[in-house]
Amino acid sequence: MMRVRDLGEFGLIGRIAGSLPQPPPDVVVGIGDDVAVLRGSGPDYFLATCDVQVENVHFLRTTTTPYQLGRKVVAINVSDIAAMGGTPLWALVSLALPPDTDVDFVDGLYQGMGEQIRLAGGSIVGGNLSKIHSEIVIDLCLMGSVAPERMILRKGARLGDLVLVTGSLGDSRAGLELIGHPEWSISDSARRTVIEKHLMPQPRLKEGQALARLGCVHAMADVSDGLVSDLQHICGASRVGGEIWVENLPISAACKEVAERAGQDASTWALTGGEDYELLFTAPETSVPEIQRTLADEMGTPSHVIGRIVEEMSGVQVRHADGKTVLYAGGSRGWDHFSGS
C-alpha cells in the first residue's frame, strides 16, 4: 500500500491535481502554483492562497507567543501574493482549538494577525471556529488582486536570465537552530536578528509590486521551502535549468555567527533552510541594474545576483567557488511535509 510519505508533499499535490477535472476557463492558474489566479468580471485578476499552521509541526507554544504566531500566519500568505506582484485584500481564518485553550491565546493571535494584515493593506473579514481534541490548527485564506499585465508567475524564466534574490538567506534556519539551543553563546544582536526573522518574517510586498511594475521580471517565487527547492519549482514550471553560485549567496553576519557556533556551513542553510520569505526571481542581465537601483532607492532593499538560467536539466546545479558543482535533482531539497525533510 502506498502512503503519502512515499509520494512526498509535491508528489501528492501532483496526484491530487491529476484526479480533478479540468478547471473552467475562468481559472487562469490553478493547482501547481502557490496562488490561484481567477478571472472575474472586472479588469483585474483575483488571487487566492491559503496556508496552514499546525501546532508541533509549524510552531511550538513554548517558543512562540500568540502575537508572533499571528504575525507569521498572515505574513507567509502575504508573501505568496507578493511573489505574483499582487495586492492583498481580504482574509478568512479557520481556527481549530482545544476547548481548554486560554482565551488570552486567541486575543494575542488575532492582535498579531490584525496588525500584519493592516500593514499589507488588507482586512480579516470572516472565518470559522471548530473544536479539536489535539493540537491547535490555524488556516488562513488570503485573497487579493493583480492587473493581468503585471502578474508574475513561476513559469516564464528564460535561457540566459540571471537569478536574483532580495535580502539575505539562511537567517530563518539560524533562528530555528538557536531557538532549539538557547544555551548557545551568541551576541545579542545576532540572536535578536535571526530569531525575529524566524518567528516574524516580513513579506517583500512592496518589492514584489515594484518588480511587477518594472515589467522586466520573467518568473518569481518566494523562498519558503528553501532556495534550491524554490528555484527547482521555477525551473520545472519554465522548462529550463538553473545554476546557483554559492560565493554570491547573501548571508548575514548573524547567520554566519550562529552557523559557526553550530559547527555548520552557513551556505547550506542559505541553500536549503527555507522560510526566509525573500523574493527569488529571474530577469535579463540588461535589466539587473535598474532592478537593483529601484529596490534600493524605493524600499532600501538589497538584491543580489546568485545564478543563471541555463539549458533544461534534471535539477538545479550548485556551483562552488572552487569550481566543484553539485546537482540537486529528483525533487525538493528543502521542506517537505511528508518525506521527512
From TrEMBL:
Catalytic function, reaction form: thiamine phosphate + ATP = thiamine diphosphate + ADP
Keyword annotations from UniProtKB, A to Z: ATP-binding, Kinase, Magnesium, Metal-binding, Nucleotide-binding, Thiamine biosynthesis, Transferase
Residues that hold ATP according to the record: Y110, G127, N128, R154, S224
GO MF annotations, alphabetized: ATP binding; magnesium ion binding; thiamine-phosphate kinase activity
Binding site for Mg(2+) 3: D34, D80, D222
Gene3D superfamilies the UniProt entry points to: PurM-like C-terminal domain (3.90.650.10), PurM-like, N-terminal domain (3.30.1330.10)
Family annotation (InterPro entries): PurM-like_C_dom, PurM-like_C_sf, PurM-like_N, PurM-like_N_sf, ThiL-like
Domain PurM-like C-terminal: 160-313
Residue positions binding Mg(2+) 2: D51, D80
HAMAP family given in the database record: TMP_kinase (MF_02128)
Protein's recorded name: Thiamine-monophosphate kinase
Protein source organism: Desulforhabdus amnigena
Species lineage: Bacteria, Pseudomonadati, Thermodesulfobacteriota, Syntrophobacteria, Syntrophobacterales
